[in-house]
Amino acid sequence: MTNLLKNYLFEKKQWIDQNLPLYIEKIEAPDILKESMIYSLEAGGKRIRPILLFATINALGMDEKKGLDVACALEMIHTYSLIHDDLPSMDDDDLRRGKPTNHKVYGEAIAILAGDGLLTHSFEVIAESQELADEMKVKIISQLAKAAGPAGMVGGQVADLLGENKTLTVEELEYIHEHKTGKLLRFAVVAGAIIAGASPEQLRCLDLFAKHLGLAFQIKDDILDVEGNVEQIGKPVGSDEGKAKSTYPKLLSLEGAKKMCNEQLELAKYWLDQANVEKELLLEIADFIVKRDH
């Protein structure tokens, strides 16, 4: 990782970490609810989605500040999905990013409501943004609702649940990950492009860049579930195997999964090259996503 990327990731993560709780603290709501929402927002993570949004705005030569509200709203939705994903009725996980999961600290009912709160408040944050024109807000809210809803992340989660204890095809697994994980990651890049005024052709190419990058991201997650360690990835290694889930290493072998991950990275780079933007930062982020160890 270059010093440029290291500094960029650190600065933008810090920016998100500092601002996220501020959106929740000013809500008129029960303290326990706000505490639970902030607990999971402050659990950490790499903030890859908001950073991709900022980097896309940067690649098109615009001020990243214009994307702060949307970036934080996106991280709220991602965090809500993790809270719900960890529940006993879904993945039943005790650890998330090295900390007890939300329902382990606050109980299932508050955890569910904290997730609901983050989801709904995210749209309010975008709607009230002072950085965006109303027409742009409507377009971004529509895109985010599709990415997070039944045609996106929620539908992918259902397919993931239905796929447990079955041997899926690679195509079925790709559907799950393209929707459960990939749609929000694609939204990050598309929203950044919309905010920065990308042309229709730039938008198309950046969307395809994000599509392939999102798949590479998930394949890498599956690889880390085999090769990582609990200190690095913040959850038990082999948790997918324990839940009898199909993964890329299971279907393709570990070496086959690594090969597919690199192929998806190269496709992402191809489409980024076609987008005619200042691509160096996005290229470095793409390489980081595939070469990370947690």
UniProtKB/TrEMBL annotation:
Reaction catalysis annotation: isopentenyl diphosphate + (2E)-geranyl diphosphate = (2E,6E)-farnesyl diphosphate + diphosphate
Alphabetical list of Pfam families matching this protein: polyprenyl_synt
Gene Ontology molecular function: (2E,6E)-farnesyl diphosphate synthase activity; metal ion binding
Names of the cofactor(s): Mg(2+)
Residue ranges of coiled coil: none
Keyword Disulfide bond: no
Family as reported in the entry's similarity comment: Belongs to the FPP/GGPP synthase family.
Protein name in UniProt: Farnesyl diphosphate synthase
Source species taxonomy: Bacteria, Bacillati, Bacillota, Bacilli, Bacillales
